Amino acid sequence: MDNKFPGKDISDSDLKDKFPLAAKKFTNHYSKFKVCGIEFGGKKIPVMAGPNMVENLSMIRKTATSVKKSGASFLRGGAYKPLTFPYRSKKYFETREEGVHWLSIVKKEIKIPVITEILDVRDIDHVCKVTDIIQIGSRNMQNYPLLTECAKTMKPIMIKRHYGASLRDWLGAAEYVLFEGNKKVMLCERGVSVTHTHRSTSRFLLDLQVVPAIKEISHLPVIVDPSHATFWRPWVKDMTLASIASGADGIMLEVHPDPENSAVDPLQPISFRSFSKLMNQMKKVAKSIGRKI
Amino acid sequence: MDNKFPGKDISDSDLKDKFPLAAKKFTNHYSKFKVCGIEFGGKKIPVMAGPNMVENLSMIRKTATSVKKSGASFLRGGAYKPLTFPYRSKKYFETREEGVHWLSIVKKEIKIPVITEILDVRDIDHVCKVTDIIQIGSRNMQNYPLLTECAKTMKPIMIKRHYGASLRDWLGAAEYVLFEGNKKVMLCERGVSVTHTHRSTSRFLLDLQVVPAIKEISHLPVIVDPSHATFWRPWVKDMTLASIASGADGIMLEVHPDPENSAVDPLQPISFRSFSKLMNQMKKVAKSIGRKI
Amino acid sequence: MDNKFPGKDISDSDLKDKFPLAAKKFTNHYSKFKVCGIEFGGKKIPVMAGPNMVENLSMIRKTATSVKKSGASFLRGGAYKPLTFPYRSKKYFETREEGVHWLSIVKKEIKIPVITEILDVRDIDHVCKVTDIIQIGSRNMQNYPLLTECAKTMKPIMIKRHYGASLRDWLGAAEYVLFEGNKKVMLCERGVSVTHTHRSTSRFLLDLQVVPAIKEISHLPVIVDPSHATFWRPWVKDMTLASIASGADGIMLEVHPDPENSAVDPLQPISFRSFSKLMNQMKKVAKSIGRKI
Amino acid sequence: MDNKFPGKDISDSDLKDKFPLAAKKFTNHYSKFKVCGIEFGGKKIPVMAGPNMVENLSMIRKTATSVKKSGASFLRGGAYKPLTFPYRSKKYFETREEGVHWLSIVKKEIKIPVITEILDVRDIDHVCKVTDIIQIGSRNMQNYPLLTECAKTMKPIMIKRHYGASLRDWLGAAEYVLFEGNKKVMLCERGVSVTHTHRSTSRFLLDLQVVPAIKEISHLPVIVDPSHATFWRPWVKDMTLASIASGADGIMLEVHPDPENSAVDPLQPISFRSFSKLMNQMKKVAKSIGRKI
């Protein structure tokens, strides 16, 4: 049947030769693994929530407290961010070592596991003392030395898809991590750079079709991040519920105590209140397809 | 807030000047209208199901009987199809007048309303004697004389989005119909021509983000057709459930008595049995978001 | 060699079964044919120039005089235009029958052949009394009844590529014309809907790579229209010269007596003076690759 | 005028605030600088030629000799390559330190300056002893620590555009280098990930429109690499000539002693003989637009 489709980009021999570790071995072979006691790839759909940037101790403490209360399993928050321009201002900055330190304080205080991004091999040791999952950002999806060095830590790794990357490229990145013997790999869809909707240009289109595409050929859990894809607060709810219905194994959401004054991308985070409400809606949709939040 | 986003393709003045009829007048202004007693734009999500092509009387009769039993509100089926190449064969053809005739027989027998495509102004009279909704196919979305002439019949019209069209282009097409005083207009998303997934090239990516995008600026009901978008049977279920969760006001699905031997696009239709099962899943997801099938 | 490339969208059997008439029969098989004494597909590269819209008799007369003097082989100008929205104003309109009439006057007076668009089968007879080449616009590339009826007139036909169409779709459209026994078919590239440059959203990217792609598999002449692709006057010159260097067999350009006040798309036409200067530059580039304007 | 275009992704204030260093200061402000005595940004268009991978000493020596004789200004060749999958074989590998060593030998012997890629901050010292220009590959265009560390060496830097990157993203990368006080920055277009042509899926479309787009807002020289964009030997010639006609300030080409047996991407390199012939054609096209090779 497959041979009838002319434009197939991943062949059966690719699955054997290029992605032997990322490819599914047989029907219904899906990876399950636990991070801080929370299972990925199972019936439950973990939620990772928090700000784009760990701006200061107070805001990350408030956020951690609130999202945990609403049912999030992980606190997300960047201390290192690949910002598009080199200029920093009061409203546009990274908190780096300080941000990681604040995450460590909050993690202990609030007792919530943490996911944060690493974008430089020289930060691995330092950040790995705190983070429970390493996030590889879209812009570093094809930074192979970074993938390899992060893999060697044996920490769980979530690889965000580059917005210009095919599934082939993305699985190639996962294969680099698996190749080092690190089996705790998650893929995270966050929108592709195509602009047919009415907010456009440098922005993204959430590719939910890639969820069943991955499930067809790979055993890796798939997370979806609707915040970065939509880049627009009012659409986050609908895309989150759609992500769950599409079969996503996890959800990453941007939540901020004062969304409109977020240091980075203020059009996309949702408030504590919206997040709490959305968690309830997510639970219902998850239940309707036989899963749970 | 809007002004902060540089790449916005539809401005506030566009809404007034270019889409005065398609644009929402105020918050929560959404069109509702009935076709053969079935409401569009309301709480209920009508399902349109059937084959890509009305191949013969027997197959369309079987399909109508089966999809009605499973809960479909409309029978879909093309007699006129914009086929990419001019060559017809035993396996690749249109049934034209005959197909429309078979639809008329089945419609009476099984008592199920019908939606079928018109692609030539010279066929309007003839097809409108049978069809309850006129389908404008993707490839004719910008065929403005066709839109105008179809609009004048005052039949309900469903406009499929061209796979290369922005929301701006698409709403322009809807405005042509509304301009003639025909208010029963539906939009139907069926995938855009972007190929980052692993089946690609001449194929499509389902844009569910466009559902909340439309709801933000327009009052028109949005239908989603996951069959044409995915072009791949195994992904139809997940994308259908995701469409409902995204806020779609209707679902169009390709269902065929013998999917693998469908005359056109045999990789995409689902069987009667799969459809029946999927209807049950759709009902659960619809219920979880406060709607129903 | 071909088999090594996984994502090939047009197979060798497609060339035989789907495009038997559009496909090249053997190496260096390229169609040549004359329109009003001007050869397409040969060493010479005909230039078609004029306004997007035939706005009035005076402007089209001036334009015809000027572009002929500068060396254009054909006068282009639309009387029927597929406008994105149904609203007409002083600045945004079609001139329809009147426009065609003005073209007929100018054609005789200035003695320059004409190319104009047809977008409705009901206009074929009328427009064909005047036009020397029928233009099928991008938005009607997949309007197969229109292609078939236009083909039957045996007039030369130029098919503009839809901005979302693959080469496969486009050659399918050409095959419809060839299938009617009409061999005078030209393809015209005018930009695809992808927006990585800094003017974007509803706008286009000129695909010059498609020129050698067509030459690899088809014998049909390829025209390039840089005006619609760039949608931006300052880029037209560079893209025109690049089109010639890429191997284009013809150039279509928008030229207007008062570009900034053009009725449609005022950002793209160039002035008489710019056109005259560009013709000289085009001649030099054409000569450098062994062709001529 | 600008304000009339709704989807403009780079605003005038962006030019001041986000790209103060990459933006043009006034009309006709273009950077010129010399590398090993060869000027970039001037009338002359330097050509960089060589294999994708420095496979062994013999092949790089032969290539350097041949491309220099044909008129290339720089030898290109990768020792470090971001390969999509972690598996190395006889036909798919990197030569790393050894490759850099071979480049150093050939550079002295043949007296030709060298450009090679760096993809890991830990390789900067080592590679900079040999290379005359640092190449930042597409996949590392947004690896900001790498950009910053490479910038600090004050070596000239050529930044290849990521195939999913907008001009905005790309200029952001250049700004990181300029921000460190390193003014010798070149941009290199090598195709965007859009697939409307007949070889597709994981492959690219050469965006020549971006050449005048860059010249409109930035003073940086623009190089074009048609080999990676087309990924297909037979199209390289036409796209190279088109690149020159579009206004490119430099050309990068893949040339290999035995193209069909190239270790990486064997479908794209051209032979010594084809390169020599192409150089003559390039000279003619360059001359026709008032430049030279």
Topology:
The structure is a homotetramer of 293-residue chains.
Chain A: H1 12-17, E1 33-35, E2 38-40, E3 47-50, H2 57-70, E4 74-76, H3 96-111, E5 114-117, H4 124-128, E6 133-136, H5 144-152, E7 157-160, H6 167-179, E8 185-189, H7 210-217, E9 222-224, H8 226-230, H9 233-246, E10 250-254, H10 272-288
Parallel strand pairs in A: 3-4, 3-10, 4-5, 5-6, 6-7, 7-8, 8-9, 9-10
Antiparallel strand pairs in A: 1-2
Helix pairs in contact in A: 2-3, 2-10, 5-6, 9-10
Please give a handful of descriptors for the protein shown.
homotetramer, 293 residues, alpha/beta, TIM Barrel, two-stranded antiparallel ribbon, 37% helix, globular
Describe the structure.
The structure is a homotetramer of 293-residue chains. By secondary structure, the first copy, chain A, is an alpha/beta fold. Chain A has one domain (43-83, 91-288): Aldolase class I (TIM Barrel, Alpha-Beta Barrel). Chain A is built from ten helices and ten strands. An eight-stranded parallel beta barrel of chain A has the order 3-4-5-6-7-8-9-10, surrounded by six helices. In chain A, helix 5 packs parallel to helix 6. Chains in contact: A-B, A-C, A-D, B-C, B-D, C-D. The interface between A and D is large, with 39 and 40 residues.
Shape designation of chain A = globular
Secondary-structure element pattern of chain A, one letter each: HEEEHEHEHEHEHEHEHHEH
The oligomeric state of the chains shown is homotetramer
In total, the number of domains of chain A comes to: 1
CATH level-two architecture of chain A? Alpha-Beta Barrel
